[in-house]
Design brief:
Blueprint: E1 4-9, H1 30-39, H2 56-60, H3 63-71, E2 87-91, H4 100-107, H5 128-138, E3 144-148, H6 151-165, E4 169-172, E5 177-183, H7 184-202, E6 210-217, E7 225-226, E8 231-234, H8 242-248, E9 253-256, H9 259-262, E10 270-272, H10 277-290, E11 296-301, H11 303-309, H12 314-325, H13 328-333, E12 340-344, E13 363-368, E14 375-380, H14 384-393
Parallel strand pairs: 1-11, 1-12, 2-14, 3-4, 5-6, 9-10, 9-11
Antiparallel strand pairs: 2-13, 4-5, 6-7, 6-8, 12-13
């Protein structure tokens, strides 16, 4: 029996979402605008990269054609391949919101059809009664921040005061999140995780999707740096996902990176942690080497979103895409007859867009494996088609949402 491997290039949207206007994102196009900037020389950075965006392996898998399907335009400066080596298409999201859990759950066959809770813009965005409950239950004297903010900026702003007072830094974004930054040494990593568990329990009634631990180190605003010990405390998916269906069938689900956190551990049988895209690809290759017949390896590559999308760093995002593209042959070399690989994304995060948050976009769906017939399967109405295609490939019964494109 064949195996299946999913790589989520976190935030790698390709524009064209039919409901983008409702999210204030009409015209957002992560791939399209990165390619446009690179073709114009605005994506150059000394010692990092230069020139048009070069993704020859993903292009051969159908990326530029998927972009044309999604947005109506070919990415600027990217050559079309002479032949295709995989099946390709684009997918629209039907879940409400444009955040990480919604996108991943829908990829796994479970769209989110309810409304998440959010914290309002402005100072003191967290309700006073929630803060008082956190202070009382966690045994802390107070907090810093309590606003919408970029994670790196708020650490610069409040990090020194946090070290002096030991008060954690609370902040949020336009996503359904409650984020807590704290120093690994001066506050303590275990203490941070315990605090996040308390906040997770107290935010269920607010329907908040994730409480995120954001540990950092350093001694000054100039040297403060977030570490790889991030952890997401997510709510459980509302229904059984592809991960549950695979594990209930007696197969293994090998989760790489933050996948286990996103699914609150549901359906995961083995966990592989790593920090940074390169290390995550290496961890995924190790997982593939350990995967047996009928198993699923599910990988999230978070750097695209966390380091480059949110920080609106076009050259950094472009260089990260080119670095991952160069690893695709490494992935292909691990495949056995009957295996398939799916490259996709969970939402957009256009680094040329206003603000610093996610953008509502279609995502690419690139599928390859030994003996898989290349060609287009068009634009899919839901990310759930990805999960149903993998379920069909693994010989599982159809689920409630989506339909296979294989």
């Amino acid at each position: 029996m064949g195996r299946a491997f999913i790589y989520v290039l976190d935030s790698f949207g390709i524009g064209g979402a039919p409901d983008a206007r409702a999210y204030g994102d009409l015209g957002a196009d992560t791939l399209g605008h990165i390619a446009e900037f690179c073709a114009a020389g605005i994506g150059d950075r000394d010692g990092l990269r230069s020139g048009p965006l070069k993704l020859p392996n993903m292009a051969a898998l159908g990326l530029v054609e998927a972009a044309k399907l999604a947005s109506g335009n070919y990415p600027a400066g990217m050559a079309r391949p002479e032949r295709f080596l995989g099946r390709y298409g684009a997918a629209s999201e039907v879940s409400r919101g444009k955040d990480t859990p919604s996108g991943h759950w829908e990829i796994a066959g479970t769209p989110v059809m309810f409304d998440w809770g959010y914290f309002p813009e402005g100072a003191d965005c967290f309700p006073r009664e929630l803060l008082e409950a956190i202070y009382a239950k966690a045994g802390i004297s107070g907090s810093l921040g309590n606003c919408h903010a970029s994670g790196t900026e708020i650490i610069k702003r409040f990090g020194q005061e946090h070290v002096w007072t030991r008060r954690p830094i609370f902040y949020t974004s336009t996503d359904s999140v409650f984020q807590i930054a704290a120093h690994e040494y001066h506050f303590g990593l275990n203490r941070l995780m315990q605090l996040c568990a308390v906040v997770r329990e107290l935010t269920y009634d607010y329907n908040i999707g994730r409480v995120i631990a954001r540990p950092f180190k350093g001694e000054t605003a100039e040297t403060f740096k977030r570490t790889g010990n991030r952890r997401d405390f997510s709510i459980e998916p509302p229904e059984r996902t592809l991960l549950d269906r695979v594990s209930e069938a007696g197969r293994n689900v090998l989760a790489v990176g933050k996948i286990s956190d996103i699914f609150a551990g549901k359906g995961v049988t083995q966990l592989f942690k790593a920090d940074g895209n390169e290390a995550l690809v290496d961890a995924s290759l190790k997982a593939i080497s350990e995967a047996g017949d009928g198993d699923l390896v599910f990988t999230n590559l978070v750097d695209f979103d966390m380091l480059y999308g949110h920080r609106r760093d076009v050259p950094g995002y472009a260089a990260a895409l080119e670095a991952f593209d160069a690893r695709i042959p490494d992935i292909a070399e691990t495949l056995k007859p009957g295996d398939i690989v799916v490259l996709t994304a969970d939402h957009g995060c256009d680094p040329t867009w206003r603000g610093s948050d996610h953008t509502r976009e279609r995502v690419p769906v690139l599928v390859f494996g030994p003996g898989l017939r290349p060609g287009s399967f068009g634009v899919r109405d839901s990310y759930a088609d990805i999960g149903e295609s993998i379920a069909a490939h693994l010989g599982l019964a159809p689920g409630k949402h989506g339909r296979s494109f294989l």
